[in-house]
Amino acid sequence: MASRVMEQLIEHGEVRRGRIGISVQDLTPDLAEALGIEQSYDAVVGRVERNSPAAHGASSW
Predict the structure, then answer these.
(1) Residue 22: predicted pLDDT
(2) Is-contact 49 55, C-beta < 8 A?
(3) Which controlled-vocabulary keywords does the entry list (predicted)?
């Protein structure tokens, strides 16, 4: 990871990280019940940011 950070700093002058554009939250037992999901040990997408890669991907469905 350090090598990739160094390469990005040399090439771009900054570290560029990928961005999907979502907020994730834990799937609690109460939320799982409200959503009608049996398992409660996962995560759910809580929000999709406007004009993000995730929003553009979802709009093409």
Answers:
(1) 94
(2) yes
(3) Hydrolase, Protease
Share of the chain above pLDDT 90, in %: 41
Q: Which residues contact 17 (CB under 8 A, 6 or more apart)?
A: none
Three-state DSSP class for residue 48: strand
Contacts of 53 (CB under 8 A, 6+ apart): 19, 20, 21
Residue 21 region by backbone torsions, left for phi larger than 0, else alpha for psi between -120 and 50, else beta: left
Tokens standing for residue 42? 């996962």
The total number of residues shown for the chain amounts to: 61
